[in-house]
Amino acid sequence: MPDLELRHLRAVCAIAEEGSVTKAAARLGLTQPAMSAQLRTVELIIGGRLFERTSVGSVPTDLGRQVVATARRVLDEVAGLLDPARERARETVALSAAEDRPGGGHTA
């Protein structure tokens, strides 16, 4: 069985927010078949349908609402973990670039 990945959580959240697999795919830069494949993978891993496909779009099932709520929390936690690290990396790059400029580095 495949592992659940962050991209799967993003896909599930996007489908819930957009109400459409096609719109969610466009938002994440995927094709509709690729998004549908990700959804099928998540449903296989979770063990149930996450969305009912209706004439008006994709509506979360009870299980889907639970998974979406948990996915949002996980994605928020991951962002909270990565944001400070990314900020430090940007500061390091900016400092390095400043040191590489003439007159921008340390003097001996």
UniProtKB/TrEMBL annotation:
GO terms for cellular component: protein-DNA complex. GO terms for molecular function: DNA binding; DNA-binding transcription factor activity. Residues 4-61 form the HTH lysR-type domain. Keywords: DNA-binding, Transcription, Transcription regulation. The keyword Ubl conjugation does not apply. Gene3D superfamilies: Winged helix-like DNA-binding domain superfamily/Winged helix DNA-binding domain. InterPro entries: LysR_HTH_N, WH-like_DNA-bd_sf, WH_DNA-bd_sf. It comes from the Bacteria. Pfam families: HTH_1. Belongs to the LysR transcriptional regulatory family. This is LysR family transcriptional regulator. It comes from Umezawaea endophytica.
